[in-house]
Amino acid sequence: MNKQTVRTITDALGSAAIQERLGVTEFSIRHARREGSFAASWYATMKAMCDEAGIACPMSAFNWKSPEPASASEASNAR
């Protein structure tokens, strides 16, 4: 997570434009800026907006779920 990247993106795109395209609240944008990551579900729209604006939209700026480690029994069943 990188607060500066999230802030750079929101400053460049504008909070109002992000809110309108994603249908989210101002609070959601402030939360992303404070936490330093966007919701993963925002990626496709945010990527398109960044591409339109000609700015970087690294995947690291989004809160992706990490894969759960397989339990020992699941791992042996997969073989």
Summarize the structure in words.
With 79 residues, the protein is mainly alpha-helical. 58% of the residues lie in helices and 5% in strands. It contains 5 helices and 2 strands; from the N terminus they run H-H-H-E-H-E-H. The protein has helices at 3-13, 15-22, 26-35, 43-53, 72-77, and strands at residues 38-39, 62-63. The chain has a two-stranded parallel ribbon with strand order 1-2. Helix 1 (3-13) packs antiparallel against helix 3. The longest helix is centred in the N-terminal third of the chain and has 11 residues, at 3-13. The chain is globular, with a radius of gyration of 16 Å. The model has no long low-confidence stretch (mean pLDDT 90).
Helix percent band: 55-70%
Q: Quick one: overall form?
A: globular
Number of strands: 2
User: Approximately how much beta-strand content do the residues carry?
Assistant: 5-15%
Low-confidence stretches: none
The DSSP helix count reads 5
Mean pLDDT score, rounded? Answer: 90
Roughly how many Å apart are the termini? Answer: 35 Å
Largest sheet: 2 strands, parallel
Note the run of SSEs as H and E.
HHHEHEH
Backbone CA Rg? 16 Å
Biggest sheet strand line-up: 1-2
Question: What class would the helix/strand composition place it in?
Answer: mainly alpha
